[in-house]
Amino acid sequence: MERYAVSHVRETGLERLFSSLQPDIARILDKALAGGEITVEEGERLFHVRGLELLGLMATADELRRRTVGERVTYVITRNINFTNICYTGCRFCAFARPAGHPEAYTMSLEEVVEKAREAWEWGATEVCIQGGLNPHLPPTIYEDMVRGIKEAVPDIHIHAFSPFEIWYGSRRLKISEETFLRRLKDAGLDSIPGTAAEILDPEVRYRLSRNKLSREDWIRIVTTAHRLGIPSTATIMYGHIDAPVHWARHLDTIRRIQKETGGFTEFVPLGFVHEHTRLYREDGARPGPTGMEDIKMHAVARLMLNDVIPNIQVSWVKLGYKMAQMCLNAGANDFGGTLFEESISQAAGSTPGTYTSPATFERLIRDMGRIPAQRTTLYEIIRVADEGP
């Protein structure tokens, strides 16, 4: 059997493990440790590893995490405000949306949204994350009105709001360009946008997920426009449905290429598909979400492919649960996400661990891993390191 001649792995103390791996896997992992760029084909190969090769992938991702961002695990105190669940799109993977007139449909008033932001600030939140359905019954100016209203009431809170699909929809309702719409939102006080609505940035999968939703090209155009205007965003992937490892690797490569061009992504957030109440699962034959091994591999391969351009890999405790989140934080991830206070979209799709995690719980779970808890801002400025005071 061909053996792998260890090279860049020597300084990590992983020589014995690497010498037991399949040579092609060992070479890819060694290439990552040397700072080489992992190709789409290599990323896809890593998504298929098992056994010792999976341990090697996890150890490599964890080592790259340690080198790049150190031993701190960060979190942000934020409140989610899902201001309406009325939506016309009909995405097959969504169980949150309701048609107007449905007994479970709701829309918050502008005053309610502003009051929730004010409460969040009083509770110690530094951010509000605002997203909702595409509700044609709201006024065309609703997005700008919400941002302006919150900033007038709570000037110092960070407004992280409106997915690229909401940007697309809002600009068309006002009959203005996406760039003009984003400029208006920024002038009103928008600070950053979530990179949701990405799903899988691969046309063959995307069309089956929702033919009425934002195209791959639209998502890329809106995100890059926001970055050019000085509005940063997150980057996401939703996986574990009708997709496959080749689509995941292509998606990561697309995110990497955008980041090289704009530098506007603050973090990468893998989001496992929550299946229970979705038509995609019940009617279209989608898988019941990712397995635990796939969750680990997604965070680890993301670290290897994105490490040099997006240093922050976030776990979604809402999707993963605390225990699997801890595992992924030992496989390349370094951020625990947000406290949330309220979260409606994942909860509507099926069972999730809850809608709120306290800073004390984050810190307990982080210390349990032997890491250092740190509260951050939306843009990853450190506010407080646990046990080091304010």
Can you put this structure into words, describing what you see?
With 390 residues, the chain is an alpha/beta fold. It folds into 2 domains: 10-69, no CATH class; 72-385, Aldolase class I (TIM Barrel, Alpha-Beta Barrel). The chain is built from 17 helices and 9 strands. The strands form 3 sheets. Strands 7-1-8-9 form a 4-stranded mixed sheet. A 3-stranded parallel sheet has the order 2-3-4, covered by helices on one side. Helix 5 (110-122) links the parallel strand 2 (78-82) and strand 3. Helix 5 (110-122) runs parallel beside helix 6 (142-153). It is globular, with a radius of gyration of 21 Å. Mean pLDDT is 90; it is low at 1-6 and 343-350.
* Integer count of domains: 2
The fraction of residues assigned to DSSP E strands is: 5-15%
Query: What is the alpha-carbon Rg in Å?
Result: 21 Å
Instruction: Kindly report the average pLDDT value.
Output: 90
The best one-word shape is globular
List the helices and strands in order. HHHHEEHEHEHHHHEHEHHHHEHHEE
DSSP E strands, number = 9
pLDDT below 50 for ≥5 consecutive residues: which ranges?
1-6, 343-350
State the end-to-end distance. Answer: 56 Å
Q: Helix count?
A: 17
- Which CATH-level-2 architecture of the largest domain? Alpha-Beta Barrel
Indicate the structural class.
Answer: alpha/beta
**What is the spatial order of strands in the main beta sheet?**
7-1-8-9
* CATH third-level topology of the largest domain: TIM Barrel
CATH homologous superfamily label of the largest domain: Aldolase class I
| Helix percentage | 40-55%
Largest sheet: 4 strands, mixed
